Amino acid sequence: MRILIADDEAPARRKLRRYLPQDEILEAGGGWEAVRMIETAKPDLVLLDIQMPDLTGLEVLEKVQHRPAVIFVTAYDEHAISAFEAQALDYLLKPVAERRLIRAIERVKRLTRKYPRHLENEGKLIPLADVSWAEAARNYVVLHAGETHIVRSSLDAIVGKLDPDQFTRISRSHVINLSFVEAIEPLAHGERRVRLRDGTELTWTRRYRNGRE
To answer: Are residues 6 and 110 in the same domain?
Structure first.
């Protein structure tokens, strides 16, 4: 597992690194550096501090397109609700006990093993966390992930590989990544208009709402 430790205090980073000798470890000493490394290195997990001098950990998550698993590691307990609203998988208070950290990371590994994190297409790995939405196109599926990927598959087959906590099917032809949703607005007959962060607007049909709201 590729893990990014984002903390402005070098001793804190060194301590966490000692606990994780078997993993590929990257380090960021501030919020903007964390943003750059998340987008370029695409880590599987980020151990993210809340209070950093340039950006807070929560602001880091607002600025990235790639969506790794996140565990907040912080000295401040008052941000826990905001952290979980940002879909953090855990919230650890400093000083972190080694056993507590390892247990949290093992939980992340179990969750990420269940569903693939990448989809292979013509020898290229597409990070599923980067896919904002997908659409059926006859015998193909078009994945929108910053750039467009055309995959020879049915939408049903693609949906079967996706984490239902992250992706949901909103119509016969469309699947969205919930992390990219900016707004949901009511339409007639129980349907919804879904607006994504890139401005894309799709219709969530009544048939496929499935109790998501």
So the answer is: yes
Cβ-based neighbour number of residue 192 at 10 Å: 19
Ramachandran angles phi, psi of 64, nearest 5°: -105, 150
List the strands of the sheet with 147-152, edge to edge: 147-152, 140-145, 133-137, 174-177, 167-169
Closest CA to 76 of 93, 52, 91: 93
**Per-residue pLDDT tens digits for 19-64:** 987 779 999 999 999 999 999 999 989 999 999 989 999 999 999 9
DSSP 102-155: HHHHHHHHHHHHHS-SEEEETTEEEEGGG--EEEEETTEEEEEESEEEEEES-H
**Structural domains counted in the chain:** 2
**pTM of this prediction exceeds 0.85:** no
Contacts of 85 (CB under 8 A, 6+ apart): none
- Residue 112: count other Cβ atoms within 10 Å of its Cβ: 17
Reading the block at residue 104, the tokens are 């949290």
Task: Please tell me whether residues 15 and 68 are part of one structural domain.
Answer: yes
Please check whether residues 53 and 84 belong to one and the same domain: yes
d(CA 158, CA 135): 10
Among the candidates 91, 114, 137, a domain finishes at 114
CATH of the domain at 173: 2.40.50.1020
